[in-house]
């Protein structure tokens, strides 16, 4: 997608603080981190979201998760959160599939999964 910022990052048309890249995936630090360590792991191929993934592409999901695990190890994270926001109602702002790796809090994560409030 020509106007997708994560496609531009994956083609090096926009800068990023890259932590890992291979032929399928790219990982870079979030520009507005929500945790002391906040890395985004994306497929280089444009896919809008988890909701748009085809069965033939499903192995990409394990590749994203496995890459996140390797980055967590290299960042010496003992615990972390992995998050996909899906669609506007799910909090997704950038419409290029990405996995958030969040961690590095002193003494553990500030919140468990918060209770539902109406
Ligand atoms: P989401 O709400 O799941 O779509 O998350 C998108 C994330 O992308 C946000 O945490 C943004 O801070 C991050 N982001 C947006 N633009 C950039 C960029 N150019 N480089 C790194 N991270 C970015
Ligand atoms: Zn894209």
From TrEMBL:
Instruction: Spell out the catalytic residues.
Output: 98
How far does the signal peptide extend, from start to end residue?
none
Q: Which InterPro entries does this entry report, sorted A to Z?
A: Histidine_triad_CS, Histidine_triad_HIT, HIT-like, HIT-like_sf
* Domain HIT: from-to ranges: 5-112
Motif position, Histidine triad motif = 96-100
A GO MF annotation of the entry reads: catalytic activity
Q: Which PANTHER family match?
A: HISTIDINE TRIAD HIT PROTEIN
- Its protein name is Histidine triad nucleotide-binding protein
Q: Which organism is it from?
A: Candidatus Sungiibacteriota bacterium
């Amino acid at each position: 997608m020509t106007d997708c910022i994560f496609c531009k990052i994956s083609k090096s048309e926009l800068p990023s603080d890259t932590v890992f890249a291979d032929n399928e995936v790219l990982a870079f630090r979030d520009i507005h981190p929500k945790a002391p360590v906040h890395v985004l792991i994306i497929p280089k191929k444009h896919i809008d979201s988890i909701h748009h993934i085809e069965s033939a592409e499903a192995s990409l999901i394990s590749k994203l998760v496995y890459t996140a695990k390797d980055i967590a190890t290299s960042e010496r994270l003992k615990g972390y959160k992995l998050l996909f926001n899906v669609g506007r109602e799910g909090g997704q702002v950038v419409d290029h599939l990405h996995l958030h790796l969040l961690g590095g809090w002193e003494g553990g994560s500030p919140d468990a999964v918060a209770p539902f409030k109406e």
